């Protein structure tokens, strides 16, 4: 008999169930209360009930949890300092979408050696998220694989659906069941329509295939996520954070009867993939806010201990501490002074309080 299935599959490795992983890395009551409060604060910013600026900032990806914890401790102190005008949420990205191929993040390959120990990766992700929350920092991540949320989403305060997956029905359905505020990026070509359609689909009830807490294949029935918004990240035709681009985004959101809430990703095609240009993008965003813009709710920065990125793959012992192995970042000193500058520049918005 001819074999007709699994011809290209080498192995299927069973994973612990979400319930087993949660028992191994449990969420404490204090963490639950913190996550609920952080999500509520972000929701208020999305719906203009809180004037603070939402800043999603941190490494492009987490590959060395010790270095990222070092980063997080510095960020937590800075977050406390600016909390009156800026709500800082740390980028804690464990899943990387790739244009073609490449390292897909700590969950998929935690040992960075192609061994793809996903069970270990999921556990490390949960442990690291708990560490960040205990520092008093809300967590942000990109959710990529539709099974991942069952393992980690209870520890996430804001999530993104990336430019490469915003058009995917699977990801829109997943978004409709998620419990946290969520940003859909515009497409890699810069078009807004995929993100607008994604917000519409993600806010509606959906039924789709997923896994339950015991890891069994299940039909998942959702309510729809009311806290979806757009993230402008530029595209192949250039950046999209100018006043004209923002006005166009406001127009299409209004036409679709969606809240006019826009987060600007200062990295990716908005900085022409030159990380050192992120500060100029952020300054322009704040300039627009001070000129009276009310639709921009915040921004995203890719930042690490040290600037730039380093080639990968390469032997782990040769990797430089605190340097990204995915997209380039701005360094900590630049980040710290930029966030302080942002805090000072937002003063006019709070002057009447
Ligand atoms: O933010 C990260 C990258 O831009 C994204 O994962 C795509 O990376 P790649 O084009 O290097 O694959
Ligand atoms: C992959 C990312 O962004 P985008 O989807 O905009 O390329 C990211 O923010 O890590």
TrEMBL record:
It holds the Pfam family DAHP_synth_1. Keywords: Amino-acid biosynthesis, Aromatic amino acid biosynthesis, Transferase. SUPFAM superfamilies: Aldolase. InterPro entries: Aldolase_TIM, DAHP1/KDSA, DAHP_synth_1. Its EC number is 2.5.1.54. GO terms for molecular function: 3-deoxy-7-phosphoheptulonate synthase activity; identical protein binding. Stereospecific condensation of phosphoenolpyruvate (PEP) and D-erythrose-4-phosphate (E4P) giving rise to 3-deoxy-D-arabino-heptulosonate-7-phosphate (DAHP). This is Phospho-2-dehydro-3-deoxyheptonate aldolase.
């Amino acid at each position: 008999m001819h074999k007709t299935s699994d011809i290209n599959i080498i192995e299927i490795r069973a994973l612990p169930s979400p319930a087993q992983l949660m028992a191994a890395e449990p969420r404490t009551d204090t963490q639950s209360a913190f996550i609920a409060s952080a999500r509520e604060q972000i929701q208020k910013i999305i719906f203009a009930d809180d004037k603070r600026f939402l800043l999603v900032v941190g490494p492009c990806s987490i590959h060395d949890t010790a270095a990222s914890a070092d980063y997080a401790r510095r960020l937590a102190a800075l977050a406390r300092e600016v909390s009156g005008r800026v709500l800082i949420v740390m980028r804690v990205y464990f899943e990387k979408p790739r244009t073609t191929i490449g390292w897909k993040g700590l969950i998929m390959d935690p040992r960075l050696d192609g061994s793809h120990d996903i069970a270990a990766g999921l556990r490390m992700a949960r442990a690291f998220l708990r560490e960040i929350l205990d520092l008093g920092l809300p967590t942000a991540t990109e959710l990529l694989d539709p099974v991942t949320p069952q393992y980690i989403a209870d520890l996430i305060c804001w999530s993104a659906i990336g430019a490469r997956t915003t058009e995917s029905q699977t990801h829109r359905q997943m978004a409709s069941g998620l419990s946290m505020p969520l940003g859909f990026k515009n497409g890699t070509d810069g078009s807004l329509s995929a993100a607008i359609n994604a917000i519409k689909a993600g806010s509606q009830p959906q039924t789709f295939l997923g896994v339950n807490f015991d890891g069994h294949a299940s039909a998942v029935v959702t309510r729809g996520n009311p806290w979806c918004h757009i993230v402008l990240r530029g595209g192949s035709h250039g950046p999209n954070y100018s006043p004209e681009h923002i006005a166009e985004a406001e127009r299409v959101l209004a036409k679709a009867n969606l809240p006019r809430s826009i987060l600007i990703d200062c990295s990716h095609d908005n900085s022409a993939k030159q990380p050192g240009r992120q500060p100029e993008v952020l300054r322009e965003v704040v300039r627009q806010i001070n000129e009276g813009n009310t639709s921009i709710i915040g921004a995203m920065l890719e930042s690490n201990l040290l600037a730039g990125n380093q080639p990968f793959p390469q032997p782990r012992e040769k990797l430089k501490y605190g340097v990204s192995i995915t997209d380039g970042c701005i360094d900590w000193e630049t980040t710290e002074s930029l966030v302080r500058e942002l805090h000072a520049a937002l003063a006019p918005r709070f002057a009447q309080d």
